[in-house]
């Protein structure tokens, strides 16, 4: 049968192209526009070259916020991934406990981000908040508006409370897909609980863990709403992450040029790190099957 | 190595079984002799795997007692029972090498590394994967993975029994034959008690010394392949074993005659039964075609090489007969039943009559 070749099929992707253009490319281009030019209003633009980028990359303010972001993401991943796996391992596999657990786990994910922030903002207040007041009554000097450590602890605990569920649900999905025969074989082979985890459960969770780590990294690296509502970036600049700093710069100080340059740098960093994560984690799997290779 | 006694074992997957239909395993009361090779044969869902899992301790029987060499093992875990089991579908530890997969059960039990190495190499040789030993198990073919599973079942030398749950389902036919003969060899060499679950009669009959036939959660017959063929205790065994299966015809018993429709069949004996449902079973091998006997109509002849299967209509019932390749098949055939091959059934269970039993060794004689 003769196949006729033409390029008309490209028209099929046109709607998507238009949509993406308006939702992503055009706004992004505006940012690019601001990043390389200077403006004093009146729609007058002057070429600025790489001036804004140099300014951003030279400022200690940017690098400090970046360091905070990296530290925050690292801590979040180190807590949420093992904790998520642990909870998923202990969730029931059948019976009435399954829907109960799933609903309980899904609840935090359903709450809007600024509401989560407000909940913890009130919860942690030392004058009226249940948590803050109780802690202070117990003799713990806890005040997230004054103390850097307290502020960080609050933001981290809040994020763990909000997002560990996501890791749990993903891991749980991976776990329930393991056929019973694997556990039976492990019993026959006399495997310990640890060996079952190490050689059966963990390998089977490989893929979902990749997704979980990627999602949690990107989300935590872009975190804005919750810490903004709770601490507003304070005390001082202690919890000012890149996104909070960006908003301060763009809307607070109306420095559109540096803010645009920073946005682009921020965007590229997230893109780069996600790519690194993805390549590393998928390569671990590929290397293994290449070794076993076969045909 | 151990003798396994199943003492009135019943099992239900329900919490509160009431009627017999609630039981996946109705009642099994039998023994597997030390060093025996047994096949559990039956259709899917007849309770074979349930019985196997009860022996290995993956399941605990709802009722009854399980003994290894006379010791009650009901309360013991799978590990403590020291049983090897091979499952229907391959289970391999993906992240380990082929070698480590086989070494896993030994290392878990704290065997010294030189002993582990010796056993693993022996098994690798046997399952023909020696050249693959350093490869990761991930990415192997289903065939190879199942060989690893099989190998893990065979690698421990000191097990009480090895249980196989349809282990060769995913293996290609030629390899199936090779592995099955290796299993038999292994059994002869080490004399480990082996229980082999299958729904394939050829597999069961070639592997085992004694075949346990199960049907709807019950053991319907235990016997040598020969016994299962000649004297099926239950009509199911008749259908299930042999190809084609036994002809089972509804009859009316009148003294030493069996009334089949308008035809009367002389019986060597006058069996007594009060049962309403009586049947006559005769294997196609014992149906004779000729010019004398009951008139029948041929519906189909299947030539399967060494012999032919003749399908006939006898008194409105379809029956099968086996005819030799060169045997002449009359145009207007009459059939007769060789008395040696006649079995009578009441409510699907075989009527034990002394006459027929004694007739058994002398084919065609005894009347």
TrEMBL record, chain A:
<dbReference type="InterPro" id="IPR000515">
    <property type="entry name" value="MetI-like"/>
</dbReference>
<keyword id="KW-0813">Transport</keyword>
<dbReference type="InterPro" id="IPR035906">
    <property type="entry name" value="MetI-like_sf"/>
</dbReference>
<dbReference type="InterPro" id="IPR052730">
    <property type="entry name" value="Sugar_ABC_transporter"/>
</dbReference>
<feature type="transmembrane region" description="Helical">
    <location>
        <begin position="101"/>
        <end position="123"/>
    </location>
</feature>
<feature type="transmembrane region" description="Helical">
    <location>
        <begin position="259"/>
        <end position="280"/>
    </location>
</feature>
<feature type="transmembrane region" description="Helical">
    <location>
        <begin position="208"/>
        <end position="225"/>
    </location>
</feature>
<feature type="transmembrane region" description="Helical">
    <location>
        <begin position="70"/>
        <end position="89"/>
    </location>
</feature>
<feature type="domain" description="ABC transmembrane type-1">
    <location>
        <begin position="66"/>
        <end position="277"/>
    </location>
</feature>
<keyword id="KW-0472">Membrane</keyword>
<dbReference type="Pfam" id="PF00528">
    <property type="entry name" value="BPD_transp_1"/>
</dbReference>
<comment type="similarity">
    <text>Belongs to the binding-protein-dependent transport system permease family.</text>
</comment>
<feature type="transmembrane region" description="Helical">
    <location>
        <begin position="12"/>
        <end position="36"/>
    </location>
</feature>
<feature type="transmembrane region" description="Helical">
    <location>
        <begin position="160"/>
        <end position="183"/>
    </location>
</feature>
<keyword id="KW-1133">Transmembrane helix</keyword>
<protein>
    <submittedName>
        <fullName>Sugar ABC transporter permease</fullName>
    </submittedName>
</protein>
<keyword id="KW-0812">Transmembrane</keyword>
UniProtKB/TrEMBL annotation, chain B:
<dbReference type="Pfam" id="PF17912">
    <property type="entry name" value="OB_MalK"/>
</dbReference>
<keyword id="KW-0472">Membrane</keyword>
<dbReference type="InterPro" id="IPR008995">
    <property type="entry name" value="Mo/tungstate-bd_C_term_dom"/>
</dbReference>
<dbReference type="InterPro" id="IPR003593">
    <property type="entry name" value="AAA+_ATPase"/>
</dbReference>
<dbReference type="InterPro" id="IPR027417">
    <property type="entry name" value="P-loop_NTPase"/>
</dbReference>
<dbReference type="InterPro" id="IPR003439">
    <property type="entry name" value="ABC_transporter-like_ATP-bd"/>
</dbReference>
<dbReference type="InterPro" id="IPR040582">
    <property type="entry name" value="OB_MalK-like"/>
</dbReference>
<comment type="similarity">
    <text>Belongs to the ABC transporter superfamily.</text>
</comment>
<dbReference type="InterPro" id="IPR015853">
    <property type="entry name" value="ABC_transpr_FbpC"/>
</dbReference>
<protein>
    <submittedName>
        <fullName>ABC transporter ATP-binding protein</fullName>
    </submittedName>
</protein>
<keyword id="KW-0067">ATP-binding</keyword>
<keyword id="KW-1003">Cell membrane</keyword>
<keyword id="KW-0813">Transport</keyword>
<feature type="domain" description="ABC transporter">
    <location>
        <begin position="4"/>
        <end position="241"/>
    </location>
</feature>
<keyword id="KW-0547">Nucleotide-binding</keyword>
<dbReference type="InterPro" id="IPR012340">
    <property type="entry name" value="NA-bd_OB-fold"/>
</dbReference>
<dbReference type="InterPro" id="IPR047641">
    <property type="entry name" value="ABC_transpr_MalK/UgpC-like"/>
</dbReference>
<dbReference type="Pfam" id="PF00005">
    <property type="entry name" value="ABC_tran"/>
</dbReference>
<dbReference type="GO" id="GO:0005524">
    <property type="term" value="F:ATP binding"/>
</dbReference>
């Amino acid at each position: 049968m003769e196949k006729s070749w033409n390029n008309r099929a490209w028209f099929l992707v046109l709607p998507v192209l238009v949509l993406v253009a308006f939702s992503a490319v055009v706004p992004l281009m505006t940012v690019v526009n601001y990043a390389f030019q200077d403006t004093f209003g009146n729609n007058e633009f002057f070429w600025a070259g790489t001036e804004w980028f140099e300014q951003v990359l030279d400022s200690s303010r940017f690098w400090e916020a970046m360091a905070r972001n990296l530290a925050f993401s690292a801590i979040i991943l180190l807590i949420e991934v093992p904790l998520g796996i642990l909870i998923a391992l202990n969730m029931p596999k059948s019976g009435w406990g399954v829907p109960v657990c799933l609903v309980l786990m899904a609840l935090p994910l359903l709450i809007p981000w600024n509401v989560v922030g407000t909940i913890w903002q009130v919860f942690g207040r030392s004058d009226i908040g249940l948590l803050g007041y109780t802690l202070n009554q117990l003799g713990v000097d806890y005040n997230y508006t004054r103390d850097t450590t307290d502020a960080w602890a609050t933001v981290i605990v809040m994020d763990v409370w909000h997002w560990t569920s996501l890791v749990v649900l993903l891991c749980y999905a991976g776990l329930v897909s393991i056929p019973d025969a694997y556990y039976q074989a492990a019993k026959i082979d006399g495997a310990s609980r640890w060996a079952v985890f190490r050689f059966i459960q963990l390998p089977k969770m490989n893929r979902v863990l990749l997704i979980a780590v990627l999602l949690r990294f990107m989300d935590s690296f872009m975190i804005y709403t919750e810490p903004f509502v709770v601490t507003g970036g304070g005390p001082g600049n202690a919890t000012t992450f890149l996104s909070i700093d960006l908003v301060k710069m763009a809307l607070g100080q109306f420095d559109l040029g540096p803010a645009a340059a920073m946005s682009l740098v921020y965007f590229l960093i997230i893109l780069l790190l996600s790519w690194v994560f993805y390549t590393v984690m998928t390569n671990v799997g590929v290397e293994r099957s290449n070794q076993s290779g076969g045909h | 190595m151990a003798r396994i006694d199943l003492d009135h074992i019943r099992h239900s997957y329900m919490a509160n079984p009431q009627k017999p239909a609630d039981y996946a395993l109705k009642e099994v009361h039998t023994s597997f002799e030390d060093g025996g090779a047994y096949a559990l044969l039956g259709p899917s869902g007849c309770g074979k795997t349930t019985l196997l899992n009860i022996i290995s301790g993956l399941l605990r029987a709802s009722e009854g007692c399980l003994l290894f060499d006379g010791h009650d093992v009901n309360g013991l875990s799978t590990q403590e029972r020291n049983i090897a089991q091979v499952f229907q579908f391959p289970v391999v530890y993906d992240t380990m090498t082929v070698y480590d997969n086989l070494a896993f059960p030994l290392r878990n039990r704290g065997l010294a590394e030189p002993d582990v190495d010796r056993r693993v190499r022996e098994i690798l040789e046997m399952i023909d994967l020696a050249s693959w030993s350093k490869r990761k198990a991930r990415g192997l073919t289903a065939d190879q993975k199942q060989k690893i599973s099989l190998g893990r079942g065979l690698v421990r030398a000191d097990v009480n029994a090895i249980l196989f749950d349809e282990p060769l389902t995913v293996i290609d036919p030629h390899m199936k034959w090779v592995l099955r003969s290796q299993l038999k060899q292994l059994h002869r060499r080490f004399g480990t008690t082996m229980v082999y679950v299958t729904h394939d009669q050829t597999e069961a009959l070639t592997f085992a010394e004694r075949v346990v036939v199960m049907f709807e959660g019950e053991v319907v017959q235990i016997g040598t392949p020969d016994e299962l063929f000649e004297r099926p205790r239950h009509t199911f065994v008749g259908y299930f074993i042999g190809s084609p299966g036994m002809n089972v015809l509804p009859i009316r018993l009148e003294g030493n005659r069996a009334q089949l429709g308008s035809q009367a069949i002389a019986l060597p004996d006058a069996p007594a039964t009060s049962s309403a449902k009586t049947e006559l079973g005769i294997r196609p091998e014992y149906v004779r075609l000729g010019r004398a006997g009951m008139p029948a109509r041929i519906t189909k002849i299947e030539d399967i090489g060494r012999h032919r299967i003749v399908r006939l209509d006898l008194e409105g019932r379809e029956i099968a007969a086996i005819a030799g390749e060169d045997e002449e098949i009359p145009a207007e055939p009459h059939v007769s039943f060789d008395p040696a091959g006649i079995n009578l059934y009441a409510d699907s269970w075989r009527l034990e009559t002394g006459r027929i039993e004694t007739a058994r060794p002398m084919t065609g004689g005894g009347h």
